[in-house]
Amino acid sequence: MLAAHMAAMAALAPLQARADTSLPAMGEGAEMTTSEERRLGDDIAREIYRDPQFLDDAILYEYVNGIWQELMLAARQRGTLTSELQERFAWQVMLIQDATVNAFALPGGFMGVQTGLVGVVGSRDELASVLAHEMSHITQRHIARMLARQSRMTPVMIAGMILGALAASKNPAAAQALMVGSSAAAIQSQLNFSRDMEREADRTGMSLMPPAGYSQAGFVSMFEKLQQANRMNDNGSWPYLRTHPLTTERIADMQSRLPAGAARKPQDTGMVAQMMSARARMLSKPEPQVLHQWVQLTTAADFASRSLDQRAGVWYLAAMSQNQLGRHAEALTALDQLDATVQAHPDAMRQAQLLRADLALRNRQPQDALAALAKIQPLKPAASKAGSTSVTVSNAMTGLVNEAVITQGSDKSLGIQDSSRDVLLPEVKAVVGDDAGQSSDRPELVLAAQALAQLPATGLTAYEGVLRQTSSRLQTLVVQWPKDAGAWLALSWVLRQQNQPLRSIRAEAESRAAQYDYAAAVDRLRAGQDMARNSPNRNDYYEASIIDTRLREMQLLAKEQAARK
After folding, report:
1. CA pair distance 391, 120, nearest whole angstrom
2. How many CB atoms lie within 10 A of CB 314?
3. What region holds the Peptidase M48 domain (predicted)?
C-alpha cells in the first residue's frame, strides 16, 4: 500500500526533497501501467540501496529471500502472479537495518523487510504470513490503484498526504496533524480504501501459505502478536501497525479461514528460524546493556527447560553478543556450545559454521573463516531429469563464464552447470522453479570472497584452488541472477585478487547497475575504458569490447533516470 511505501521513504532523507515529484503523471483516475510502476520502484529502490540502513547480509538475506521465492512460486501456481507481472516487476527483497517492526511493499515488485520484524517473529510461518500479505499488495496492483485514487485529489491534498507519511516514522503525532491539515475527508477516504486492500491482501496472502509449504496458523499468530502490541499502546517500535490498521474483523476473518482441525499455532519454529531471529536482533544495532542481557540468557534459571530449538537461538545470540562486546574467547565458547546443540540437524549445523566464518571475518581472521567454510558439506550434483539433453555454450552476454552446460529436462526446466566443476547450481529462472527446495551456497561464496579479499598477497598462494573455484562459481551465479548486486561485488573482490583489474572494475559497475545507480555504473565503466586503453595486455581486448557495450547501455539508462528527477 502507498502508506507503507511512503513509510519506507520516510527513513530516507534524500527522497524528502523530491517526494512530490516522484509520482508519475496520470490521467484522471487512470491506473498506473506496469512500466510506470516499475520505473517508480527502481527510483525508490536506488535510494534505499544508497541509504546507510540498507543491509547487505548474505546469511539473513538467504533466509528471508528463500521464503519470498517459495511464496512467489505458490503465487505463480495459483495464478495470482501473472506472467506479465513476473516479467516486468523486480521481485527483489531489500533488508533494512532497523529495530522497528515493519515490512513494506514498494512499486514495481520491491519488498522492504526491516530486521526488527525478523527479530520478533517466532517462526518461519509468521514471517511468511507478512511476506505473503505484502506480496499480495503487489500482485493485486494495490499501489497502482492507490495512486490512481490520489490522481483525483488536488496537489495540496497529495502534498499533505506525502508529508504526513514522510513524518510518520519519526513523529506520528506530527504526521497526524499534517494529514488533518490537508483534508480530513480526503484522508478518511484514503484509509477506507486501504482497509479494503488490507482484507484483500489478507485473503490472497493466506491462500499462498499451504502451496508454499507454510502453515496458515502463521497468519493468526502474527495477528495476535500485532493485537497484543496494539493493546500495549504502540510506542513507535511497531510502525507496521500504523501502515496496516488492525481490526477485530480482520482477525476474526483469518481465524475463520483456518481449516477445521488445523493447528492453531505455527508449525515451523525450528532451529534455523530461532537462529535467524537472533541474527536479525543482533543486526538491529542493540545497545551494549542489551548485549549483556542476551549473554546472561545462557545462565538463566529457565535456560535448561527451554526447547532445543530455543537454546540454539540463545547460543547464536550469545556468540554474536560476546563478539560485539569484544570478548572473543567467550564468543568462541558460545560457538562451541552452539555446535554441540545443533548436532544431527544439518541445516542448523550449516548456519553455525556460517556464523563462525562471519565472526572470524569481523575479527579480521580470514584463515579461520575459510576453515569454517571448508567444514560445510558442499552441494551435491542434482539428479538429471529423465530425457534431459545437454549442450555446451559460451556466454556472450556477460563475458564472464567461458563455458557452461545448459541442461533441459523433459519438463522444459533449465539447469546451468559451470564446466569447471561437478556441482549443479539452482535452475536458471527469474522465479524459483521446480527445485525450489534445493539449497544454495550463495552465503558461502560471498563469505569466501570476503575472506580472500582480507588475505595479504603473500597468503594467497595457499588458497589458489579456493580462489579459482570461488571465482568460477560466482561467475555462474551472476549469470543466473544478473541483478544480484552482492554477488557482483563479491566477484569484483575475487577478480582483483586474481590480478584481473579490468574485469574487477566491470563487476563493480554491474553491482552498481543492479542497485539502479546507473550514473555510478557509468563512472566505473569509464574507468574501465581508461584502463583498457593503457593496458599492454592484448587479452583485455574482449573485456574492453564488453565494457564499451555496457557503457552505452548504462549511459542511456542514466539519461532516462535523470530525466525522471
Report:
1. 48
2. 23
3. 88-257
Long-range residue pairs from 281-285, CB within 8 A, at least 24 positions apart, any chain: 281/115, 281/119, 281/317, 282/317, 282/320, 282/321, 282/324, 283/55, 283/57, 283/60, 283/97, 283/115, 284/97, 284/98, 284/99, 284/115, 284/116, 284/119, 285/97, 285/99
Strand partners, 104: 112
The answer for residues whose C-beta is within 8 angstroms of residue 138's C-beta and 6 or more apart is 85, 89, 105, 109, 111
What's 459's DSSP letter? Answer: G
Give residue 10's Cα distance to chain centre.
19
What confidence score (pLDDT) does residue 377 get? 58
Which pLDDT score is estimated for 257? 74
67: number of Cβ within 10 Å: 21
Checking if the pLDDT of 559 tops 60, the result is yes
The pLDDT score that the predictor gives to residue 255 is 72
Structure confidence at residue 15 (pLDDT): 34
Do 118 and 127 contact (CB within 8 A), yes or no? yes
* Packed helices 58-78 and 124-139: angle between N→C axes, nearest 10 degrees: 60
CA dist list (Å): 194 to 61, 81, 187, 518: 29, 21, 10, 34
| DSSP assignment of 237-298 | S-HHHHHS---HHHHHHHHHTSPTT--SS-S---HHHHHHHHHHHHTT---HHHHHHHHHGG
Q: Which of 100, 175, 104, 171 is nearest to 142 (CA)?
A: 104
- Can you tell me the distance from the alpha carbon of 426 to that of 439, in angstroms, rounded to the nearest whole number? 8
The residue behind cell 502463521 is: 218
**Are 451 and 373 in contact, with CB atoms under 8 Å apart?**
yes
486: its cell numbers:
552482492
Q: Take residue 294 and report the three cell numbers written for it.
A: 542476551
How far is it, in rounded angstroms, from Cα 332 to Cα 37? 48
C-alpha cell at 253: 476473518
Exposure string for 101-117, b = 16+ CB within 10 A, e = fewer: bbbbbbbbbbbbbbbbb
